[in-house]
Request: fold
Amino acid sequence: MFDIVDHGNGIFIVKMRLSEVHTLDVPELKEKLQQAIINKGIRKMVVDLSSVKMITSSGIGIFLNINQSLKSNLRLASPNTEVQKVLELTKVTSVIKVFDTIDAAIQSF
Reply:
């Protein structure tokens, strides 16, 4: 579903392995991300979306929820053109910062 790497300085990188983040995956994905935040004491998170080809509104809801849990310390990185378009149309980009690269997302903290 995803891999988490401790980047140091309290920043964790979440590499999504799903090509589609849709309604059926939402409950499990949300629970696993929330558990990781609690278990690892995550305060800052970058989600690498480079493998994600499609995302639904339910999937976007997860990121909004996680962003709230992390007190706006969630960054999304490397979305493809389609995912970027969905993030912009749903106004997610006004709430969560989105970056072209993981490095740019990390530097934003």
Summary: The CA atoms of residues 34 and 66 lie 7 Å apart. The radius of gyration is 12 Å.
